[in-house]
Amino acid sequence: MEYSAGELKGPGTLNKSILQSGTVYTFKVYRPPNQTGTSPTLSGSGYFTFETKRNGLGFYDTTTPAYVGDMDISPNTSNPPSTQSFGVKTLVSSSYIFSYDLFKTTSSNDTTGEQMSATSSFQVLPSLTVPIGAAFFRATGDYEMEVQPETQTCGTAFRNEGGENYPRLLQPIFGATTGTVTVTLTGPSAPTWVKAEWNSVVQVNTGWALTSDITNYNTLGTSQRNGFKDDLIGKAVIGGSGNYPTTPGGSGVNEILSDGFPKVQLFTSTTFNKNAASPTFADVEVYNSIGGTSGWQVTVSCPA
Fold first, then answer.
1. In this structure, are 143 and 260 located in the same domain?
2. Spatial separation of the C-alpha atoms in residues 283 and 150, rounded to whole Å
3. Do 78 and 139 belong to one domain?
4. Element (H, E) at 231
5. In sequence order, which residues have a C-beta less than 8 Å from that of residue 155 and are 6 or more positions away?
6. pLDDT (tens digit, 9 = 90+) per residue, 97-119?
7. Which residues make Cβ contacts (< 8 Å) with residue 111, sequence separation at least 6?
8. Are residues 19 and 119 in the same domain?
9. Do 20 and 70 sit in the same domain of this protein?
10. Within 10 A of 68 (CB to CB), how many other CB atoms are there?
């Protein structure tokens, strides 16, 4: 998770990624099941606050950018207007700060019927780019949070220390520079799919991939193959329709073996040509199906 409950408590933590002007960001705020007993009286409700970093004297002044002033925040009433915004109400905002009242939303696990984690979400469209470290995020109620897409300057390594992503959305910023861009996948412990689009064209499409040792993942009956299948059952087919398992056949990154699950590809890096000044960023999706330790690192270089 990008922001832990510990980081969001108290004074909060500074933003770890850029909020690029003109990009819609979805904030997903999760309240994990309270299994540790750390805060046994929590009801599942709380607050989230975005606050512009103050100056060295603790004030806002004429030099402090009013990031929130012209920011489009959705929903702006107690009735969420989209499926991407729920579990929030009572938006309060000024030029430098906004805050939501978060309330408990639950859903049942289709298999066990058990109530799952409470989740709230909302969307933000900045009119000014918010640099890393320019705003505080904080929450009460033991919430964890992720912000998608995760925006960083090109050449910065995007990392996942573990857990499922289906997908995780990344946005490397190139600027107007042109040249060769290298996309590199490092160290996934389970098959991972990377798809990168620039200028409305898919430039990189790895399929389910590992950087080495793919034989056992493609050999029916092995523990690696069976584990991969178990992780994918019921998940949406990437680049197709329906859920896994699916009809055998196809070729390349879309090849499905006779057990109805994908063939795992070998991939480390590839390049594409950013041959125009605009768009100044790429849209990257990373899919990882395993819920345990499944660390990966994706690096999108600056144009060379």
1. no
2. 10
3. yes
4. helix 223-232
5. 172, 299, 300, 301, 302
6. 999 988 765 554 444 444 445 67
7. none
8. yes
9. yes
10. 22
The verdict on residue 123 lying in a domain is yes
**Stretches in the chain below the pLDDT threshold 50:** 40-41, 78, 108-116
Residue type, 217: Y
pLDDT in tens, 182-211: 999 998 888 999 999 999 999 999 999 999
Q: Which of 118, 147, 176 is the last residue of a domain?
A: 147
**Among 25, 282, 17, 19, residue whose Cα is nearest residue 129:** 19
What local confidence, expressed as pLDDT, does residue 238 receive? 94
**pTM to 2 decimal places:** 0.86
pLDDT computed for residue 114 by the predictor:
45
In a domain, 173, yes or no: yes
Q: Is residue 152 part of a domain?
A: no
Percent with pLDDT over 90 in the chain: 63
Q: Which domain holds residue 118?
A: 5-147
Element (H, E) at 289: none
Same structural domain, 178 and 104: no
Of the candidates 159, 158, 152, the residue with the CA atom closest to the CA atom of residue 174? 152
Residue type, 68: V
Q: Give the C-alpha distances (Å, rounded to integers) separating 137 from 2, 6, 77, 134, 143.
A: 12, 12, 21, 10, 11
pLDDT of amino acid 61: 79
Q: Determine the Cα–Cα distance for residues 116 and 253; give it in Å rounded to an integer.
A: 34
pLDDT value of position 13: 97
Give dist(CA 143, CA 117) in Å, integer.
10
If asked whether residues 84 and 162 sit together in one domain, one would say no
Q: Which of these three, 147, 171, 195, is where a domain ends?
A: 147
